Amino acid sequence: MKAAIFSFITCSEKSMVASVKAAFFLSKTLNLPLVDDETIELYETSDVLFIVNGAYAFCKHLEPLSHAIRGVKRIVWIQQDYTIVPPINDGDATSPFRKAFVDRRKAGKSHLEFWTTCEKESRLTSLSSLINWNALGFEEEKPPLNKKDAGDLFYYGSFRAGRTKAFDKFFNSPSLPITISSPTSRFEQKYSGPNVRHVKKIEDLHSELGRHGLGLYLEDAKSHSNFHSPPNRFYEMLSGGLPMVFQEEAGYTLRKAGYDPGDFLVSNAASVQRRMSRRAEILKEQQDRWWLKAAREKRDLKDKVLEAYNRLEKNL
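Now predict its structure.
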């Protein structure tokens, strides 16, 4: 089977971007070329094109990608986040990238298969699969922990609209130190004060995590009722030696995934403060309960990808 993988984001082996990690893993597992530039149009006669989700609005190679989209027999959308969705295959699209999907439909070709962390999308076609790409965020080598002076609540990630109520609940007028790491300035604009510290960039996340007191786990409101694999930051904090506290609404997704956060739920800043004195105990409990399961999920990824690939090959 002739196939290739396309990433909207420029790929680097040292990249911390989750989609890039998935792209490299897929390339190595299936022994397929990984392309992130205009040469993707050379693969328009391929049997399968794997497209790794990403912020495609900023990609400079959408026109050559559109040639490959029109030509290949099947397309597999590698999805880690329900917020990054592919173009539809109907309507009056005019951009080359979006129109390529419409042209596929007019030519009688299939739209997409999904290899995804989202349960809903994994059921859209018979060749779609639920694959936990986020487990790639788990590092089996435990980092050295420096908890001597740790007493802050740590949150990192983007400013998501579906989390603003939770942000207000935990970040407004905090009574304990809070560290927020995000490339956006929106956190700084909204949450400030003597107890709030903002960090733009972290060079080595795995080492950094163990230097904080507690990690705050928040979800988008939509995630409370629509199942998807636990996110990257769950596996990163677990393996990085950062004990986690979870917003109360996050229980459904995590319990279904096999990680019951019931003993570590928090409802406000005051309940976080009560947990802080037990952070060493919480870390031990979470690693005792979840470490081996998370490590197994990462190790099983290769078999799951190969199984999905073999089904795809049989149905060309």
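The first helix runs from residue 18 to 30.
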